[in-house]
Amino acid sequence: MCGNNMSAPLPTIVPAAQKVSAVVIFLHGLGDTGHGWAEAFAGIKSSHIKYICPHAPVMPVTLNMKTTMPSWFDIIGLSPDSQENENVIKEAAENIKVLIDQEVKNGILSNRIIFRGFSQGGGPINGVNKDISILQCHGDCDPLVPLMFGSLTVEKLKTLVNPVNVTFKTYEGMMHSSCKQEMMDVKQFIDKLLPPVD
Ligand SMILES: *[C@@H]1O[C@H](CO)[C@@H](O)[C@H](O)[C@H]1NC(C)=O
């Protein structure tokens, strides 16, 4: 988020109560900011983990009639065959990588960093590390990103990383949002992968 054309403010951070030994970086969805997610992580935080919720730069979004809003990259359409501007997605991924590199420079081991996001925030990623665990969550009443796209993504992810490390959870009646049960599942996932070190 530093340099070039990024107009986004600094990420909202939920600091660790003790010495930081692990980091979670979480990207919000289209038109949102990191604030709500920071609050959500504050609700499930563990004392040795720092949670970083960056804010997307503001840009015109083709899908929304070029309306200007926080967005990680331009979205042309939502169907699986929609044109995607790969360079723009790559650029977003590069900006996120800067954040990860900063934490590594701060002394956090790269295997102690979890990175992901909600909806569009789940998009920017450059080259998947094969030795990772993935938790993907989806509301089964999501009217914006149909559950089927989630299933397709999970099948794709299982070809990229060890399938036993890919977990797909669906939430009955949930729309394009998150819920308490989901946040508890997220907490369990994070705390299992990033236990305290002494
Ligand atoms: C993947 O799953 C296996 C079996 O549960 C586990 O031993 C391994 O640590 C997992 N890998 C990662 C990166 O979480």
From TrEMBL:
Instruction: Quote the Pfam families the UniProt record gives.
Output: Abhydrolase_2 (PF02230)
One biological process term from GO is: fatty acid metabolic process
- Which lineage? Eukaryota, Metazoa, Chordata, Craniata, Vertebrata
Q: Domain Phospholipase/carboxylesterase/thioesterase, which positions?
A: 11-122, 126-193
Q: How does it assemble?
A: Homodimer.
Main location class: membrane
Family of the protein in this entry: Belongs to the AB hydrolase superfamily. AB hydrolase 2 family.
UniProt keywords (A-Z) are: Acetylation, Cell membrane, Cytoplasm, Endoplasmic reticulum, Fatty acid metabolism, Hydrolase, Lipid metabolism, Membrane, Nucleus
- Does the keyword section mention Glycoprotein? no
SUPFAM superfamilies for this protein: alpha/beta-Hydrolases
The job of this chain, per UniProt, is described as:
Acts as an acyl-protein thioesterase. Hydrolyzes fatty acids from S-acylated cysteine residues in proteins such as trimeric G alpha proteins or HRAS. Acts as a palmitoyl thioesterase that catalyzes depalmitoylation of proteins, such as ADRB2, KCNMA1 and SQSTM1. Acts as a negative regulator of autophagy by mediating palmitoylation of SQSTM1, decreasing affinity between SQSTM1 and ATG8 proteins and recruitment of ubiquitinated cargo proteins to autophagosomes. Acts as a lysophospholipase and hydrolyzes lysophosphatidylcholine (lyso-PC).
Q: Write down what this protein is called.
A: Acyl-protein thioesterase 1
GO cellular component terms, alphabetically, are: endoplasmic reticulum; nuclear membrane; plasma membrane
Gene that encodes it: LOC102822796
Name the chemical reaction catalysed here: a 1-(9Z-octadecenoyl)-2-acyl-sn-glycero-3-phosphocholine + H2O = a 2-acyl-sn-glycero-3-phosphocholine + (9Z)-octadecenoate + H(+); S-hexadecanoyl-L-cysteinyl-[protein] + H2O = L-cysteinyl-[protein] + hexadecanoate + H(+); 1-hexadecanoyl-sn-glycero-3-phosphocholine + H2O = sn-glycerol 3-phosphocholine + hexadecanoate + H(+)
**In which organism is this protein found?**
Chrysochloris asiatica
Give the EC number: 3.1.2.22
Q: Name the InterPro entries for this protein.
A: AB_hydrolase_fold, LYPA1-2/EST-like, PLipase/COase/thioEstase
What molecular function terms (GO) are annotated for this protein? carboxylic ester hydrolase activity; palmitoyl-(protein) hydrolase activity
Say which domain of life the source belongs to.
Answer: Eukaryota
